[in-house]
Structure to design on (304 residues):
């Protein structure tokens, strides 16, 4: 459980954090200092849901920016590793962490597309805040699969979403809906793209999933339950941005309605449409068992 430890910060730190979410966001800047409400929400989620003590929690902060979420969490005693593909903002956070004596927080320059179980190991909790909507497909699919294998308890996702299913993408025989969003001009050079600190590191377009498709994708990746956080409140949060918590656990088995057991979500939907949910034969049970074993590896049997 996280506990409140109020550490007075120096004025330059407070001013930098107060500007987060305003610079470079002329289309819809958030009110001054409003990012504090985002930090409060993330800290409350950890306090309410983390299963182990502060000293045992390990957190990975993906695309940490200047590291305000990482610093706030590290001030509470958590072991934390923060990465970002750019150093311009992260260097400020690194300097602040050193001034605060946070030996339990380390920063690393790295691209999230290069982060995996093999390279970084496992963490209890993963922050995936403000990055998903800057990713292109299939990168977003591969990254979420990697983060699933790296996660022990849950991943917190804060992301813009598409409010309308204008476009669709295909991955592993599944269809996910959303909208394409431009990150850079086609003619932008690599250096120009790198210097746009509030855009993608290199991809010209990103794909914004609808909420339904994003929740479905998290289930397809292997997370057993997905929750949307509504409180603590964020009054300035735009209508196309949400906070999700995806938990990694073991699927339950139901006694009162056994027909749902050992079925994929697609199979359940098909059974509901026919109105004749079957208990499934031996082949279906074997297929489900094999797919469960293959899922962490990114594979899936379609027919058997």
């Amino acid at each position: 459980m996280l506990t409140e430890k109020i550490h007075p910060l120096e004025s330059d730190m407070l001013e930098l954090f107060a500007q987060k979410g305003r610079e470079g966001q002329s289309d819809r800047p958030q009110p001054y200092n409003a990012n504090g409400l985002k930090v409060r929400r993330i800290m409350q989620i950890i306090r309410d849901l983390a299963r182990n003590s502060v000293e045992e929690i390990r957190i990975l902060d993906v695309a940490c920016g200047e590291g305000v979420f990482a610093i706030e969490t590290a001030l509470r005693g958590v072991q934390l590793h923060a990465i970002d593909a750019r150093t311009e903002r992260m260097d400020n956070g690194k300097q602040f962490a050193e001034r605060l004596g946070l030996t339990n927080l380390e920063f690393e320059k790295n691209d999230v597309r290069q982060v995996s179980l093999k390279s970084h190991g496992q963490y209890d909790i993963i922050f995936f805040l403000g990055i998903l909507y800057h990713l292109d497909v299939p990168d977003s699919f591969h990254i979420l699969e990697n983060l699933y294998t790296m996660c022990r308890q849950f991943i917190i996702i804060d992301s813009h979403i598409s409010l309308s299913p204008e476009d669709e993408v295909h991955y592993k025989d599944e269809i996910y809906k959303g909208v394409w969003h431009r990150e850079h001009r086609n003619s932008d050079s690599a250096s120009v793209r790198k210097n746009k600190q509030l855009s993608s590191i290199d991809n010209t377009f990103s794909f914004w999933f609808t909420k339904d498709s994003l929740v479905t994708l998290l289930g397809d990746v292997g997370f057993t339950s997905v929750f949307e956080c509504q409180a603590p409140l964020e009054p300035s949060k735009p209508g196309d941005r949400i906070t999700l918590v995806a938990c990694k656990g073991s699927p339950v088995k139901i006694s009162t309605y056994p027909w749902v057991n050992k079925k994929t979500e697609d199979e359940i939907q098909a059974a509901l449409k026919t109105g004749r949910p079957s208990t499934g034969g031996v082949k279906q049970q074997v297929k489900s068992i094999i797919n469960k074993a293959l899922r962490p590896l990114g594979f899936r049997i379609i027919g058997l």
Observations:
- The chain is about 30% helix and 20% strand.
